[in-house]
Amino acid sequence: MSTTHAQPATASPEASPPAESLPPPNDSSDSASKTPQPAWRRWIAPVAIAVVLLLAAIKLGPWLWTALNTVSTDDAYVNSHVTFVAPRITGQVSRVLVDDNYRVKRGDLLVQLDKQPYELDVAVKKAAVESATADLIAARAQTMGAVAQIRSNYFNLVFAIEKVRDQVAALHSNVDNLRTEEANLRVAERDYARNKPLAEKGAVTAEEFDHYTAKLEEARSRVAAAQQVVEQSRAALGLPPSDDLDEIPPDLDQNYSKVRQALQVLIESAAQLGYRPSSWNLTPEQVIAEFYQQDPQGNLDHIYERLMPHAPIVKQAEAKLAEAQAALAVAELNLKYCDIVSEIDGVVTSRNVNPGNNVVVGQSLMAVRSLSDIWVDANFKETQLDHLRIGQPVDLEVDMYGSRRTFKGRISGFTMGTGQTLELLPPQNATGNFIKIVQRLPVRIDLIDYNPDENPLFVGLSVEPYVYYKEQPTGPNAGKFLQEPSSLPRPDMRLPRVDQPNPESSADQLWPTLPAVPNTPAKPAATSPGPAVERPAPATEPASVPQP
């Protein structure tokens, strides 16, 4: 078997390229990398870097702007007012109409106590009011009887004065009669003296002389009798013996004992109306004149209508009626307090009462927390307070909602003390070793346009407030640390005047029209009538006690 060796073919010089122009062996990958690329690929890296920077600016820009323009803290919580529901009376619980988390409105019935004991108490107090009203009617009737007694005693006084004047006139008549008898005695004495010598001479018979003697004795007897009558008349008038039998004090009719006695009886009856004269030494004419001066026209009806409501017995009955009315009002108020209602709009929490429990005044039954009156207590460091003022706007981020919901608010005030100073046992930095700790001051932030039905906030939720201290504060007390003094009403520290209520029964018409009384004009006083008594104007009708 023969082997044939092939000879390599030799190419012609014209067909073979130069040796230096031929690519070296194993350089196929380098030639491929030096292949021209598309132009858009050169912008991928710069665009990616720009996008990252833009996203970082979008994400970090607001945060950086907020950090440079706001003051914030993470020590802030939602707070609200809480109203503790407590009974005003003692009793047994009959019904409980709510439970925890119930939403209630102001005036809604929460708890009801057993009403039967208080209904019975109201019935007893109503009976007491009716009894006091009857007593008032009787007192006013007695006052009208006192008016009649005053008029009767007045006429007795007038009668006593007239009787004294009659006695004075009788005394004058008796004195005149005595003088007549004395004149007759003198005539009889002259006749006796003239006829006695004639009888001794026999010119006058013994019978005629006996006649003159009898006339003389009769005249003497008549004079003695007349003198006895005069002395008796003077003694009846309380006059001492006197040579001048006609001597009588000019004001005897005003100072006579019987007249004075009748005057005191009249004053005693007038005292039942609360009236007294200006002096106990006034004469009857002065007392009567002073009594009539209470009315410019001297109208007795007007005077009595003015005095009767102020009679002591009437005032006492009215006071008892007012006391009974007040007791009834208290009983009705206690009956009303059997229904325990909510005083605010809110949500029930901390219920700890059940039907059948016996409760006392002030015992906490449950709490109602307000839904609308909510604010945020933010505890800022003392180093942050220099930038804060009332009225600055605040953005509030609540952990419950995250960044999905931002609430708006404004600073409304600063607590007058840091948290440590407001504790029950504040620290005593003057004793022991002292370590300085940055204090925090509670700052109140009120919510703006807060709607609990859309995004409710619950008490105690964590909040992160951002105060824009560079913006202009707005609202009340804007730009201040302390609020202006509030214009609050001042209580009246004087003792209250208790007005007497008008009874709703027939006691409102307890003053029937008085019968017409003749206006007896007072006689002019012999002496000065004395100062007139100034009586206060009749009080206005007392207002009724409002019933619950």
Which structural category fits the helices and strands?
alpha+beta
Q: Uncertain spans, ≥5 residues at pLDDT below 50?
A: 1-23, 27-33, 503-548
Quantity of strands, as a count? 13
* CATH hierarchy class name of one domain: Mainly Alpha
The proportion of strand residues reads 5-15%
Shape: rod-shaped
The pLDDT mean sits at 81
Counting H and I runs of at least 4 residues, what is the number of helices? 9
Instruction: Please report the distance between the alpha carbons of the first and last residues.
Output: 144 Å
Radius of gyration: 59 Å
Main β-sheet description: 9 strands, antiparallel
Helix content: 25-40%
Write a compact overview of the structure shown.
With 548 residues, the chain is an alpha+beta fold. Helix content is 38%, strand content 14%.
Task: Characterize the structure shown.
By secondary structure, this protein is an alpha+beta fold. Among the domains are: 76-86 and 92-103 and 341-424 and 434-467, Elongation Factor Tu (Ef-tu), domain 3 (Beta Barrel), CATH 2.40.30.170; 118-312, Orthogonal Bundle (Helix Hairpins). It is 38% helix and 14% strand. The chain has helices spanning 28-33, 44-69, 116-201, 206-236, 252-255, 257-270, 284-292, 300-307, 312-336, and strands at residues 71-72, 76-85, 91-96, 103-104, 109-113, 339-341, 346-349, 358-359, 366-381, 393-398, 406-414, 440-448, 463-467. Strands 1, 2, 4, 7, 9, 10, 11, 12 and 13 form a 9-stranded antiparallel β-sheet that branches. Strands 6-5-3-8 form a 4-stranded antiparallel β-sheet, with no helix packed on it. A hairpin with a 7-residue loop joins β10 (393-398) and β11. α3 runs antiparallel to α4 (206-236), α3 (116-201) packs antiparallel against α6 and α3 (116-201) runs antiparallel to α9. The longest helix is centred in the N-terminal third of the chain and has 86 residues, at 116-201. The termini are far apart. Residues 1-23, 27-33 and 503-548 have low confidence and may be disordered.
